[in-house]
Amino acid sequence: MATRTGGAGAAPEANEALRAQIVRAADALYYSRGITAVGMDEVRSTAGVSLKRLYALFPGKESLILAVLRHRHGIWEQGVEAAVAAAGSPRGRVLAVFDFLAEWFTEESFRGCGFVNAFGEMGPGFPSIAQYVREHKEGFQARMAELVREAGLPEQLAPQLALLAEGAQTTAAILGTAEPAEHARAAAETLLDASDATAGARP
């Protein structure tokens, strides 16, 4: 008996592999051209699957967008954590976030923050997408708060540093240059230096 690949009757591992294949194809299309510009049929064609299989795994475009955002969240976390792990000091771990951004901004495929892009296109009409974007951003702020705390820095620096990183992504996408990452890192260093100076001045 032949084994079916994809769809409700397929083995779980086959479905997961097919889901990943579709998500990668959709992610590339959505990120490069925008979500509303890409239909499900184009995703099907790029992923190399039938429309029936596509809809068996993703009943609608909203479910596919959420899967793409989860995929992109994983990529973001891997990039940030790799940069943080490579840093040599607690202060360096905080600044490593901006080093990650600088490297990302130089990629030819860079089109800004995929979560901001998705929110701008779909958020107002799709609460589930807006909520996931908020959770991603809140997760980044929480991670920044951990890094700040581990470095022994004042907790109020965390949202300030996170905003520098967020602004750098948007500015880099608009201007088409990686320089905003350098400027954001310099501003972050100024904040850290000011915090150190304040701490040193206390009796």
TrEMBL record:
Organism of this sequence: Brachybacterium phenoliresistens
Name of protein: TetR family transcriptional regulator
GO molecular function: DNA binding
Gene3D superfamilies named among the record's database cross-references: Tetracycline Repressor, domain 2
Domain HTH tetR-type as annotated: residue spans: 16-76
Keywords tagged on the record: DNA-binding, Transcription, Transcription regulation
UniProt xrefs under Pfam families: TetR_C_13 (PF16925), TetR_N (PF00440)
Annotated SUPFAM superfamilies: Homeodomain-like, Tetracyclin repressor-like, C-terminal domain
DNA-binding region per Swiss-Prot/TrEMBL record: 39-58
